[in-house]
Specification:
Helix content: 10-25%
Low-confidence stretches: none
Pfam family, one: Hikeshi-like_N
Subcellular location: Cytoplasm; Cytoplasm, Cytosol; Nucleus
Largest sheet: 5 strands, antiparallel
Strand order of the largest sheet: 2-3-8-5-6
InterPro entries: Hikeshi-like_C, Hikeshi-like_N, OPI10
Order of helices and strands: EEEEEEEEHHH
Radius of gyration: 25 Å
Organism: Sakesphorus luctuosus
Family: Belongs to the OPI10 family.
Shape: elongated
């Protein structure tokens, strides 16, 4: 039903079923993993009104399991990418795997998937740092890049009286750069 992918490793398509509605994938050498992709294989959909909460579990300094909610997958959202590299020092959260005695070793983490009602998934709050770059961060980067370019180009602006003739240089009027900047911002917003 589920698959798990870590860059540079083989796809894991056979999770360990630890309860009727709970599945785990082992992540050996988890200290060297930045992102994990969890996805549905497409062979078996969730039952109507159900989805899967995705958790990350790693052993703390004492060897105790620390579980953190990453997000979810559903029939409508059958895959998700999670950033786990910054989670290894956070606090744990409530999780449905508490009563299970899952083996923990110092270099193996786990991804847990718990099948739950969709209304329960909507009420859960994932760890903020697990979200992967979104369109908003791309838009933010592009906006900062545009601002930087405009400020840089404008810093070289001179009046026509200040210009010294030089046949090997081409000059672009500052209002042309400003017009391009404004048009690009408008398109980015759309």
């Amino acid at each position: 039903m589920f698959g798990c992918l870590v860059a540079g490793r083989l796809v894991q398509a056979a999770p360990q079923q630890v309860a009727e509605d709970k599945f785990v994938f082992d992540l050996p050498d988890y200290e060297n993993i930045n992102h994990v992709v969890v996805f549905m294989l497409g062979t078996i959909p969730f039952p109507e009104g159900m989805g899967g909460s995705v958790y990350f579990c790693y052993p703390d300094q004492t060897g105790m399991a620390v579980w953190q909610l990453l997000g979810f997958v559903t029939n409508e959202k059958p895959s998700a990418i999670f950033k786990i590299s910054g989670l290894k020092s956070g606090k744990g959260s409530q999780h449905p795997f508490g009563a299970m005695n899952l083996p923990q070793t110092p270099t193996v983490a786990q991804i847990g998937i718990s099948v739950e009602l969709l209304e329960n998934l909507a009420q859960q709050t994932p760890v903020a740092s697990a979200a992967v770059s979104s369109v908003d961060s791309f838009t933010e980067f592009t906006q900062k890049m545009l601002d930087n370019f405009y400020n840089f180009a404008s810093s070289f602006a001179v009046t026509q009286a200040q210009m010294t003739p030089n046949p090997s240089e081409a000059f672009i009027p500052a209002n042309v750069v400003l017009k391009w900047y404004e048009n690009f911002q408008r398109r980015l917003t759309q």
